[in-house]
Design goal:
mainly alpha; 2 strands; 113 residues; 62% helix
Length: 113
């Protein structure tokens, strides 16, 4: 039969385990929110960028767990040549692609299409 002391010890263990799980869930939510914000900003490898910045704890978050000040962190990294591979390059506009197609079509002639 369980004694009161054993029950109290088990409940303290469960309480600490619950706190650990809550902290892990909060960190996971912060990580996903940060990765989403980074991908919207054009970062190709968010995990590596988080690692190079010192981990998830080096970023600031608001009460809802959304990252704050990401653009301020990314601005110097975009200008740095060593981190340039982490960002998407600007894509060409649709108009330049159409012009190329028209040029090809004219150069091929009507019979080759």
């Amino acid at each position: 039969m369980p004694t009161t002391r054993n029950c109290r010890t088990k409940s303290k263990g469960y309480e600490s385990e619950i706190e650990t799980l809550k902290t892990d869930a909060l960190n996971t939510a912060k990580t996903y929110a940060l990765k989403e914000q980074l991908s919207k900003a054009g970062v190709t490898d968010a995990d590596y960028l988080i690692y190079k910045q010192g981990g998830i704890d080096k970023f600031t978050f608001d009460k809802d767990g959304k990252p704050v000040g990401v653009d301020d962190i990314l601005k110097p990294l975009r200008e740095d040549k060593t981190y340039s591979h982490l960002f998407c390059r600007k894509r060409r506009s649709i108009h330049t692609k159409k012009r190329r197609w028209r040029f090809r079509r004219k150069s091929l002639g009507k019979g080759n299409i």
